[in-house]
Design goal:
This protein is α+β, with helices and mostly antiparallel strands. The chain has helices at 21-35, 51-61, 81-102, 105-111, 122-125, 150-167, 182-186, 218-221; strands at residues 3-6, 9-12, 73-78, 128-135, 137-140, 143-146, 171-172, 193-202. Bound molecules: 3-iodo-tyrosine.
Length: 226
């Protein structure tokens, strides 16, 4: 590995595998088709998942690019039954209020095909809950230093852990109880962290049904300027 200094800071040579144009096209197609087999699953089995597996999922998420490489995230991984129960109870309380008045009628109608409601059994049934907190700032020598592009960075990290979950043959769903500050309290998180997304992770139950949805075709999601 070659090393050199740029701006007085160490840089290392970076060598990646490259492919012929045909092979690259094939790999892109295969990766897309494989990602397209991912579905959000709410019926998560209580079959155990090892801590080691979860550790590697978290490390996959933590490879995400981030503003000035600050990696402004904390992944809280919970398998403790009492904590999961406390989270379920608090989330269902908020969700009950959301589904009974806080969400607009249009929103409730938009969720009908998806079939969600205020009940969140997966918060106790899944062997693991991974809750991603964004780190808004770091305390350094008694000074509050804001992180950069925090929402973008953490959103990308969430996408990367979701694809890692799929790769392991496990399932998840992006749960966003609102408001979600109860998570700060239950997990005793410091002031610089804000809950961002909750991912219950596990194997799917034996028989799982998901909404019969189609993804938008290329023409509806892309515009080319050639
Ligand atoms: N946070 C609620 C509601 C919800 C909102 C959207 I937008 C969804 O795509 C799914 C659910 C819940 O988790 O039920």
């Amino acid at each position: 590995m070659d090393k050199k200094e740029i701006n007085g800071h160490p840089h290392v040579s970076y060598d990646r595998d490259t492919y012929s144009p045909e092979e690259a096209e094939q790999r892109a197609k295969e990766y897309y088709e494989w990602l397209d087999t991912r579905r959000t699953v709410r019926d998560i089995s209580d079959k155990p998942v090892s801590k080691e597996l979860i550790e590697n999922l978290i490390m996959a998420g933590s490879t995400a690019p981030s503003g000035a490489h600050k990696q402004p995230w904390t992944f809280c991984a919970i398998s403790n039954a009492d904590i999961k129960k406390a989270i379920r109870e608090a989330a269902e309380k908020e969700e009950y209020d959301s589904y009974h008045g806080r969400m607009s009628e249009r929103w409730i109608k938009d969720l009908e095909p998806i079939g969600t409601d205020w009940n969140k059994p997966f918060l106790e049934e899944a062997p693991w809950l991974v809750i991603i907190f964004k780190r808004v700032y770091e305390m350094e020598d008694g000074v509050k230093n804001n992180n950069y592009y925090v929402n973008e960075s953490v959103g990308i990290a969430c996408g990367m852990i979701i694809s890692a979950i799929h790769k392991a043959g496990l399932v998840t769903l992006t749960h966003t109880p609102s408001p979600m500050n109860f998570l700060t309290k239950i997990l005793n998180r410091p002031d610089n962290e804000r809950p961002y997304l909750l991912l219950p992770i596990g194997y799917p139950k034996d028989e799982v049904y998901v909404p019969d949805l189609a993804r938008k075709p290329l023409e509806d999601v892309a515009v080319f300027y050639e």
